[in-house]
Amino acid sequence: MTTGFFWDERCFWHSGGNYAGLLQVGGLIQPGGGLPENPETKRRLVNLMRVTGLWDDLATQQARAATEEDLLRIHPREYIESFKAKSAEGGGELGLRTPFGPDGFDIACVSAGLAKAALFATLKGEVDNAYALSRPPGHHCLPDFPNGFCLLANIAIAIEAAQTNKLTDRVAVIDWDVHHGNGTEAIFYDRDDVLTISLHQERNYPLDSGDFADRGSDGGDGFNLNIPLPPGTGHAGYVEAFERLVIPSLHAFQPDAIIVACGYDASLVDPLSRMITGGDTFRAMTDMTMEAAAELCDGRLMMAHEGGYSEVHVPFLGHAVLESMSGSDIHAPDPFQAKFEGQQPGDRFNRYVSTLIAEMEDTLGL
């Protein structure tokens, strides 16, 4: 396998400002370690791959920033202009929990450009599959309102550019970030040429979105699938949801390309979730997605990095994903493997999760 790995040092320079966790410093909130969304999770992934040698098994490359034309297919001009102006002033915040520093607009364009280039390379057959180490992330960004650390809708920008250039017609997006992919959902909610699937912890973020009943509107009715899972769901629940809901939905849709919004914040040690997954889980989901891509769309698969806030765990989860994507035999053992195995839910909880999945399966008629 030839796996393209698209990255840019500038993405590590994106700044979130003066925060302590999710709270802005001031009043009774004393300075802390900054936003959970920080460069270390991504930088450590790169460093780990260089140390293990997996880096040499990838087709590493950079990419041009997304153009204004690319952005305007998704975002209104007023939003782009306000983002540019605030960035030129040294940064600030335009939406909900989306602070950025100097050059924030330019770096966000680089991030979106990585996703675009990774998708184009995959669709053109220049690589077998591709991974974009995008930062800032994008799956929460609405056309005119950024939120949840996301400033531009990276994946949506890439899809629109590819469709405009007649590289693809029908795209499926699997979002396994632990938070609902509300931005991607909203952008394609009334369309039947993009299937959006979000597998997430129920009522985590955003609090008021991600319900199973939200299936799309107008021409897009039936082309949005939310799979909300209860806090505490572990490896078995994720694998079962994939086998019974995600994969059959892909086969029903018959995409000519698959994109994964690849967040790692379902990790059992992530500070922003309460799920219990590990390297085995992400490797299993990657393998199942690759198998579906091989059967449905000649293996055309692109992943765009989204969330994941454990500096020590994300690099190993990303390494597991890229091991599978590239077919490399270089392995980086999950340092939390024993904890992962010891904290898996018991049979009673797994039966409860199975019941929820079965109810969704019956409703969908899969």
TrEMBL record:
Which parts of the sequence belong to the Histone deacetylase domain? Answer: 36-315
Gene Ontology molecular function: any one: histone deacetylase activity
Specify the protein name: Class II histone deacetylase
Q: Which GO terms describe its biological process?
A: epigenetic regulation of gene expression
